[in-house]
Amino acid sequence: MKKLVLGLVLWVFGVVLAFGGGRMVYRAWASERWPVVRGSVLSSSVETLRSRRSVSFRPHVRYSYTVGTEHFTSETIAFAALDTGNSQEANDYVRRFPAGAPVELRYSPEHPSIACIECGHAGLADYVVTVGGGLLALYAAWGLLELLRSGLRARRRQRPIPSGGAAPPQAARG
Fold it and tell me: Distance between CA 109 and CA 17 in Å, rounded?
């Protein structure tokens, strides 16, 4: 039972990873063909992300735009991760989008609230998550199938052999 639960958990985890990464890769690819609109940068800064072993920096740009009569704000620069270990690189990136500056962006025609400034690029991490999640899901599915097969084989071996009531004829000895 533990193996079944572990296999299902791994399969679900792999599917979620593959779906999440695949969605980002798809959005990056599809965003190249989205409609273009001009917007305005509301704010830009660099976020410092600290972990036990490292510090990384993430450019943060908030912008607004209008599609038809609806007004939107977004913070998606690109569908690729833009974190860097170099604060100067992140600051150089943010300087390209000063507050109040006009910005050209693309938005999803189905969901105009989804937009990006630098569209069409998925990061290596997105591909790794997509492929890794897919491989994990396949591996877990294969393990679950093998578990099912071995259970069926064990049940077959435990079944008693049905007796027909009569013994097989024996050859006459002479």
Answer: 26
CA-nearest of 129, 125, 122 to 27 is 122
Q: What type of residue sits at position 114?
A: I
pTM over 0.70: no
Nearest to 138 by CA among 17, 23, 15, 25: 15
29: which residues sit within 8 A by CB, 6+ positions away?
Answer: 120, 122
Selection from 26, 35, 60, 36 nearest residue 46 by Cα: 60
Task: Could you list the beta-strand ranges (E) of the chain.
Answer: 36-50, 55-67, 70-74, 102-107, 115-116
Cα 149 from chain centroid (whole Å): 30
- Strands 102-107 and 115-116, by their bridges, are antiparallel
Q: Compute the distance between CA of residue 37 and CA of residue 76 in angstroms, rounded to an integer.
A: 15
CB 35 within 8 A of CB 120: no
Query: What are the pLDDT tens digits along the chain (174 aa)?
Result: 888 888 899 999 999 999 988 888 888 888 889 999 999 999 999 988 888 888 888 889 999 999 999 999 999 888 877 777 788 888 888 899 999 999 999 999 999 999 999 887 777 878 888 899 999 999 999 988 988 888 888 788 887 766 665 555 665 555
Residue type, 173: R
